Amino acid sequence: MNRIGKTISFVALLLCSGVQHGRLLAASFNDVMITSTAVDNEVVPRYQAILQSEIQRYSAVPVVIKGKGESIGKVAPHGLVVYLHTSASLAERQIQYDGGIPSERDPGPEGFVLVQNGNETHIIGVDTRGVLYGIGELLRQLEFQKDSIVIPDDLEIRSAPAFEVRGTGVSQGHTITELTGSRKWTPEEWERAVVGYALAGANTFSIGHDANEKSPTYQFIRGLGLKVLLSMNPNSGAPADKPEWEAQEAIGRHGYLCLSVPEAREYKLMIEERRWRDLAPVDYVRLKSGDGGGCECELCRPYGAVYIEMCHDIAEIIHRYQPETEIFVLNQKLDNDGDLAIFKYLREHPEPWLRAIAVGPGSNAMGWMPGRRQDHRMDLFRYPAFGAMDRYYREMLQQMPPQHDLVFFTDITHWVYAQNGLMGHYMLPDRNHNVPPTADHYIYDRKPDRAMYRVYNRRAFNARPEAYYDFFRESERYGIGDVTYSEGNHDHFNNWMWQRLLWAPDVALREIVLEYCQTFFGLEAAPLMVDAIFQFERNMQIPIEKNKGIQEFANLVERAGMKIPKNRLQADWLWRQYQQRAYTDLYIQADVRAQEELLSKIKNLAEEAVSSNETKSKLQEINGLLIAGPQLPKEATDWVKRSHQLGRESDRIYGVQIAGMYNLKQDYVGLGWYTDQIEAASVAKTEEARSILQNMIDYEMKRVDALYDDVGNPDNSPHVTYGWPYDGGFFDKTVKKSQRVCAYTTNEEQGVTLEYKDLDPEAQYVVRMTLARPVYKERYQGFHSQQQESIFADDVPLVENMTLPEFTPRQFEFEIPRQSTVDGKLKLWCQKQDRIGEGDLGDVTVWRNTGGWGTLLSEVWLYKKAE
């Protein structure tokens, strides 16, 4: 009887370093032969081709595949033979393995054993997919040299995935290609991306809305023995000639059906019946509840009740044609009543038509991340356990029948304004005007650097190891896995780490990052790239102007590039992405510093102009500085040049570039506003010019002891007692930084409010206010009729139904009636325009979701009127 000998045993998933880094005995091979005992398996030959391709991508080592019926023959003296087996193929040939043939019990479904001894490598899959995952582990153990590969001499790894569902969607990302002008992927490059995540442990890939057996993408995924997830919306597909069937979608999108209209509901079921007769087999169907989709109309309230019943009916159609397909429903963007309706329906209909509820952006009733969740379970904050990333998932499991699970649909693609992104704004109140307790704010205190936020799109190239590792560990413990949401290849690290964690969630974070870096940059460069990736994440959250980590990140990436072997570097699109990002960040930092330096010089000259008799000459000097513009260091031009060169290279290699280097023209410090002041002063008479300059250099009016509030900035608005930072629509970005942020309220009777005490009862006070209203995307404009607000001092109107200037802020002054300050106190507050934010809840929801405001206020000065 043939045997596969047992070798020295190592702990599974320990990362083996190279000889130079303490690697234990290692062997070098100059050619490779791949063969298999699974000769009747149609999929394993495709795995052989994958292994061959991956080795030859980074090395010139000859790789030969021995197919069915071919004799292995004599192996070259310096050759490696890789044997691919399944447990079934070993049993058929009565081949034993001293370590025990892997099974679904040990190590588990989809698992493998990888044995390396001498010039033989044996990969034994528990099932067919286990062979692919064993190949992934082998590739992670290899060191690629130009004409050879190196592998630990004695190795045994026995491993299986921890989660059943492990996947993502794979695409190049149309937004990134539009922003960068990158070329489109070839079909082979898309396949390579799928293979990359599969080798990391993924078993499921989202294919969008249709399953077609003739589709090359569908054929490729199924041809590798991997699973297919189809996403669909149970209320999509409204015909254009039936406007009476249209849903009231959460942000006003068209093309969705109101399922409370019987004819619309029957139409949708008829369409699905016809469609599923011809669809190719799929493993999972994820039925979306929102973003887009859903209906906010009165008849559909709560939408969760209408939605889950429709999901059940569609599931019955699916199971008529594909009885093995598993159904996931989603509670994305529902409200509390909608969630409770789903739980109630499932308890009342315990049939096994549903496998799991999928949790995605806007699903968490304890989370205020952009999503948007309309209301929240404030009762769960009474004893919140581990907080927003934990408590509601436990609540969902308690509410659901025991035969159903949670599965995740996690957004790991956006670095800002997302389910787990950095918060580019402060928390917004929900429709009940609730915000989370202070103890839960730490999640939302992770803010992006403001300059980076302006340059980089939401889909910017990013890596967030620490934040996403924490999120994974807090949340995924409650589910059966995750098919992540991805919009391109810019989230490569995040997605790859997610697949590895779904395989082995207890591996330490630094080990995962090291494994990633060894896999994609080689053993020598890996330690430097590990430090670079952690520094990269920190840099995104630290104000860039004085952040030494920007240069440190650039140094680490550049040094790592010198240690990547030339045979790897020539094909390494990923390192080029990190280096593009490093150069672009350096440029942003230099530009911010240069603009701040220019602004400082302008202010200094303006002070001299005010305090001397040389006002006009100083203005000429200032104009000269403005014409010359910010003075960046000489290296800045080279950084841009080199980042674009690397972009062309990464585009040629793999059709990817970072978008930020195409969006570098920014006004970070409000130079546009200062330029306007200088232009006005330059044509004014001397005294008027001095007055303009005085206001420019003492903007907060400290010279007259004004009480100043930058109302949209909670850190510099001591008198604001009601209102939240606004995050809707667009304002002029060429104005002063403090002018382009606002505080707002929605449909409350009380608007933005400031309160003062210890005022002089004998003084006459004046208030100056900066006011503006936003412009909107064209598709949102029809939901926003608000233009006016009223402003009160206590109960006395200062101005009623005042139309706010659009887009570009302006300043207005009002005298405060003496009776409002005679007690040494003052309440300044705004009141919304009549009937704004009122009416049907669905209309109000769409209004709120698209940036609706009742009152807006940007800046306030309260000061004594000059005698």
UniProtKB/TrEMBL annotation:
Keywords: Hydrolase, Signal. SUPFAM superfamilies: beta-N-acetylhexosaminidase-like domain. Residues 1-26 form the signal peptide. GO terms for biological process: carbohydrate metabolic process. It comes from the Bacteria. InterPro entries: Hex-like_dom2 (IPR029018). GO terms for molecular function: hydrolase activity. This is Alpha glucuronidase N-terminal domain-containing protein.
